[in-house]
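During the reporting period, our protein records have gained a structure token line. One record among many is quoted in full directly below:
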Amino acid sequence: MRRPAHLTRGRHAPPVPRRTLEVTSADGSRLHAEVHGPEDAPAVVLAHGWTCSTAFWAAVVRELAGDHKVILYDQRGHGRSPAVPPAGYSTRALADDLVAVLEQSLAPGERAVVGGHSMGGMTIMAAAERPELRARAAAVLLCSTGCADLAAESRVFPLPTPGGRRRAHRLLLGSRAPLGPVSPVAGHALRYATMGPGSSAEQIEACARIVHACPTGVRARWGMVLYHLQLTRGVSRLEVPTAVLAGTADRLTPFVHARRLASVLPQCVGLTELPGLGHMTPVEDPDAVAGRLRELVRDHLADVAAPHDERPAAEQKTEQQQAEQQKAGRQQTEQQKNDRQKNDPQKNDPQKKEKAA
């Protein structure tokens, strides 16, 4: 019997969504999306990376869904989103899909913090100049990603020259070789390529199950999009507050990419360095990723999403009572002053005023 493509128990088991929806992209492609958390809470939209699925965000969703509306979707060909013809794999398609998710999952006028891991971050960069993204994104998190020269700078094959690394990583990205069942050997290979040395067995299995479930043709077609990736212009046009987060032991998108993004972004609001972590940061340290998303909601979305006073009612009532008491005190003081003036015979008798002068 075939095992499910994700863990079914533990922190990395995907929680049950409150609702699911089918999103239709610009070219008619269908995308699986799901919503977690309260409907009226601040919204966070998350886009996963190459060979992954909504299940990749499981631990982050568990951290956020108690007080955030978290919207996830499967990139085309991944998870429960059907594959498309070969012409449907491009950075334009990534941008179209993200815009469709934002427009069809958020309420009219609603904004969100938008986060993307790896190819999900590239999706956001590809959509940087879209008016829909600018209207919907209050802030952005770019997590373990890059905008160009991926094959030349990756360190899965640590060859000495950029040309050698480019050729070797092209073979990796475009490979259609089946990954086979999740085994200890396969897990070791995945950890080496994508994760930090301190990754737990549960984290490795969670990632391996998801990655191995990606169809080989989908993996290869998106891999070649990544090989030719050039989104530097998109980064320079991403004119929303944007945070960058990456692990220092990332072999797929080494930390140099994070530094480059931070230097090019028009509104970079911080670069978070996670020592010893690899490429799969939302799985390796979901607390750090969820925490950064929370900070972006707090700093850039809370006032927009809820401009009214959201303090507890008791706190609001106490402050209102204090204001009323202060007003009553001022009125009482003014009345006492008027009474003293009225009862002062010297102030009320002109002759006595002249004698006093």
The first helix runs from residue 58 to 64. Confidence is low (pLDDT under 50) at residues 304-320, 345-357. DSSP finds 17 helices and eight strands in the chain.
